[in-house]
């Protein structure tokens, strides 16, 4: 990689950090802005948390900056602490009943699989899980696999935009459009998407979309959003009823008690909590602009794909997708069958490498994230370490001559 921005991050220099996808890493200037907000809160907490004296205005600044990045209106985006929370708000607001079907795939994040199970048990709805064929090499094949699960009882389409276990970038656009045409609510898990792939939420047209800012957008931990199309905001009930709740309807144009849309106020105004991570989102966006981060991300993507190809060649195991369906900076690399926790621990103990290693539906995977602070030398170390630890588990292959 031609650009390395290690000096801007607070990561332990003794650790080869290849797991940005789990919790991200916050650049130093963004973290300092986050701490500035926290210090301001502690200097005068009553004034800071009083909506009339600045809180609502500060929240609106962050919301407006993020909405511009997501290409939607500020009243369509509400602050939440993480994507799981946002998706729970959306899913638990849907008026499902016994016999309704929730269509999803076998690549979803485990926490949200539990959310769907909870909702199914509470409402009597049925979860229909389709298998996305691997390797994923065709948008049509993905569309057809999911489309085959739609029935007259389908009420919800729940999809990851970028999958957590398999690091795939699902081509969801045509399925979102088809769901809309059939009167099916589309709920999209965008936990890994903001800052990782360009988003235009209004153009995408999903009914509900929740994403983290603290992963690839690199804002502080605890900053995320829930997007809801304006005509559906009246459906949304917050998980916690607090100061922002209103008995009035939440149709487009109706303002909440604190001046934002009723949808935003109900979710954001919930008593004492530290909004500093959210208030630092504009600083994260500015950091990305100042360092031309989409260019940095493209370099990271090339390095991630090169490394994945080396690991594939090392073990003779095919990739889970063609490059266009791999997450831009994150690749789930198949490795030989092993005790994944033991390999994870050995990589960390013996090589200082932090990377998730796990088993998923019969596949053993090391999921590589590549961010602007990573280097080719670190990738060389990873390939060498995986070879040291796993090559002996492979059947012997004839050595090439020459």
Structure, briefly:
The protein is an alpha/beta fold and 402 residues long. It has helices at residues 20-23, 28-43, 45-49, 55-70, 83-93, 110-123, 139-147, 173-181, 201-204, 262-268, 276-279, 281-290, 293-315, 340-351, 376-390; strands at 16-17, 77-80, 101-105, 126-130, 154-160, 185-190, 208-212, 224-228, 330-334, 353-354, 357-360, 363-369. Strands 2-8-7-6-5-3-4 form a 7-stranded mixed β-sheet, with helices on both faces. A 3-stranded antiparallel β-sheet has the order 9-12-11. The protein has a two-stranded parallel ribbon with strand order 1-10.
Spatially, the strands of the biggest sheet line up as: 2-8-7-6-5-3-4
Radius of gyration: 22 Å
Helix count from the secondary structure assignment? 15
Strand content: 5-15%
**Average pLDDT metric:** 93
Shape type: globular
CATH structural architecture of the largest domain: 3-Layer(aba) Sandwich
**Going by CATH, what is the homologous superfamily of the largest domain?**
Type I PLP-dependent aspartate aminotransferase-like (Major domain)
The helix content is 25-40%
Q: Uncertain spans, ≥5 residues at pLDDT below 50?
A: 396-402
Major sheet characteristics: 7 strands, mixed
Order of helices and strands: EHHHHEHEHEHEHEHEEHHHHEHEEEH
Do you know the CATH topology of the largest domain? Aspartate Aminotransferase, domain 2
Query: How many structural domains?
Result: 2
Structural class: alpha/beta
Strand count = 12
Highest CATH level, the class of the largest domain: Alpha Beta
Distance between the termini: 30 Å
């Amino acid at each position: 990689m031609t650009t390395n921005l290690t000096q801007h991050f607070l990561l332990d220099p003794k650790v080869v950090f290849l797991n940005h996808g789990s919790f991200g890493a916050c650049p130093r200037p963004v973290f300092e802005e986050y701490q500035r907000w926290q210090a301001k809160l502690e200097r005068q907490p009553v004034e800071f948390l009083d909506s009339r004296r600045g809180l609502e205005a500060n929240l609106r600044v962050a919301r407006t900056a993020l909405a511009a990045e997501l290409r939607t209106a500020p009243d369509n985006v509400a602050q939440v602490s993480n994507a799981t929370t946002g998706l729970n708000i959306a899913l638990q607001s849907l008026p499902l009943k016994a016999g309704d079907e929730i269509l999803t795939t076998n690549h979803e994040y485990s926490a949200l699989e539990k959310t769907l199970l909870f909702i199914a048990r509470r409402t009597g709805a049925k979860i229909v899980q389709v298998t996305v064929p691997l390797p994923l090499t065709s948008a049509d094949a993905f569309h057809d696999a999911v489309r085959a699960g739609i029935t007259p009882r389908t009420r919800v389409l729940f999809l990851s935009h970028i999958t957590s276990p398999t690091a795939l970038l699902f081509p969801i656009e045509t399925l979102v459009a088809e769901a809309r045409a059939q009167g099916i609510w589309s709920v999209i898990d965008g936990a890994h998407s903001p800052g990782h792939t360009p988003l235009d939420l209004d153009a995408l047209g999903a009914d509900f979309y929740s994403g983290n800012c603290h992963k690839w957008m690199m804002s502080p931990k605890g900053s995320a959003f829930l997007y809801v199309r304006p005509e559906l905001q009246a459906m949304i009930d917050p998980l916690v009823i607090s100061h922002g709740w209103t008995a009035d309807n939440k149709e487009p144009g109706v303002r909440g008690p604190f001046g934002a849309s009723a949808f935003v106020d109900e979710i954001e105004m919930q008593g004492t909590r530290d909004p500093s991570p959210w208030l630092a989102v504009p600083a994260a966006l500015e950091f990305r602009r100042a360092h031309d981060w989409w260019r940095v991300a493209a370099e990271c993507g090339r390095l991630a794909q090169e490394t994945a190809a080396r690991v594939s060649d090392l073990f003779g195991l095919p990739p889970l997708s063609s490059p266009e369906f791999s997450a831009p900076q994150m690749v789930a690399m198949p490795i030989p069958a092993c005790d994944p926790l033991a390999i994870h621990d050995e990589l960390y103990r013996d090589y200082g490498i932090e990377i998730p290693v796990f088993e998923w539906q019969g596949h053993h995977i090391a999921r590589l994230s590549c961010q602007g602070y990573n280097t080719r030398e670190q990738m060389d170390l990873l390939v060498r370490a995986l070879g040291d630890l796993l090559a002996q588990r492979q059947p012997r292959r004839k050595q090439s001559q020459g």
